[in-house]
Specification:
The structure is a single chain. The chain has 180 residues and is of the alpha/beta class. The strands form 3 sheets. A 5-stranded mixed sheet has the order 5-6-4-3-7. Strands 1-2 form a two-stranded antiparallel ribbon. A two-stranded antiparallel ribbon has the order 8-9. Helix 3 crosses helix 4. It binds guanosine-5'-monophosphate. The site of guanosine-5'-monophosphate has 19 residues, from helix 5.
């Protein structure tokens, strides 16, 4: 998606070869109009996929996923990164290793918001090693959802998911960002 790539080149900052800072338009401040275009792009790419529900991971996946849900007129479900051990009933949890925090967390789904047979589109802000997306997929499968996925490309594809990335980064270094 050219608009998103240009925004990343104009406003993103590569901290090193692994981490891209997008705080000015996604993580700390949101460019809502850009997110609307991102939502439209997802809606266009998945128009014929029979999606029944959109799922995202808090917090930075919410803006693009909400816009896609609006465009596609679908419910949006949020997976929490709960550390709490109090709320154990009625939830599904799996441990995910955080790429940015370098520590594990419990990815949490309230399964009443995903129904058996749902065809879920998972939208997240970044795909790095695929830990978050694979954790989310295992929760969704446990809740009975079918398999169709958004955003570690190879791992997810090998697991049978369709993966679409709007701005695929090929290489980064300090102050260098190159797309595929
Ligand atoms: P993965 O689980 O695929 O290794 O990493 C995906 C998660 O880590 C995303 O939900 C995102 O929040 C975070 N993440 C991964 N790479 C980056 C990055 O380059 N910049 C930022 N800001 N977050 C990232």
């Amino acid at each position: 998606m050219e608009l998103l790539k240009q925004k990343i080149l104009d406003c993103g900052r590569a901290l090193d070869e692994h981490v891209l800072l997008v705080d000015s338009f996604l993580n700390n401040q949101v460019d809502v109009k850009l997110m609307q275009e991102v939502g439209r792009e997802f809606a266009r790419r998945f128009a014929d996929a029979g999606i029944t529900r959109i799922v995202t991971i808090e917090s930075s996946g919410i803006a693009p996923a909400a816009m896609a849900a609006l465009e596609m007129d679908l419910p949006l479900v949020i997976l929490k990164k709960s550390k709490s051990s109090i709320l154990k009933e009625g939830i599904l949890q799996t441990e995910v290793f955080s790429f940015t925090k370098n520590a594990p967390y419990q990815l949490t789904l309230k399964p009443q918001f995903v129904h058996p047979g749902d065809r879920v589109l998972l939208i997240d802000d970044f795909l790095a090693n695929g830990e978050a997306a694979l954790g989310a997929s295992s929760l969704l499968e446990r809740a009975g959802a079918d398999k169709t996925f958004q955003p570690g490309l190879k791992k997810l594809q090998e697991a049978g998911y369709r993966v679409e990335i709007l701005a695929p980064v090929k290489r980064m270094a300090e102050n260098l960002i190159e797309f595929d």
